[in-house]
Amino acid sequence: MLLRDLTTGTAARALAGLGPQGRAEATALMASMRSGAGFANDLTWLRAGAGPGRPVAVPTLVVASPRDGSVPFGHAEALVAAIPGAELLVSGAACHFVWWGADRPRVAERITAFLAGPPGA
User: Fold this and answer.
1) Which of 1, 59, 60, 64 has its CB 3.0 to 4.6 Å from that of 76, i.e. a possible disulfide?
2) What does the pLDDT read at residue 45?
3) Closest Cα partner for 29 from 104, 97, 86, 84?
């Protein structure tokens, strides 16, 4: 039921596109998710003085899928436009879960390289 709100297509098509491993991972993820902590973390971050008017001063990789039904792709584009030096990594995923697209190896490789830092760091 949750998947239908996370894709611009149909939940059945997004689920079918995950393949057996992706479906197993999605099931495990959904079974372990709990609501509320993310929003509380956002409020704590804002209370600490972060937010509008304070520039992001760290390398930023924005990962998004144009077929995400939960967060409009324009949000990712706006972040990249607003954060100096930010990079947009477009996922081919059929839903909000950008790591479950057919291009998962490419997405995972770029995220891993980004987290490893610049060459020679």
Assistant:
1) 64
2) 57
3) 97
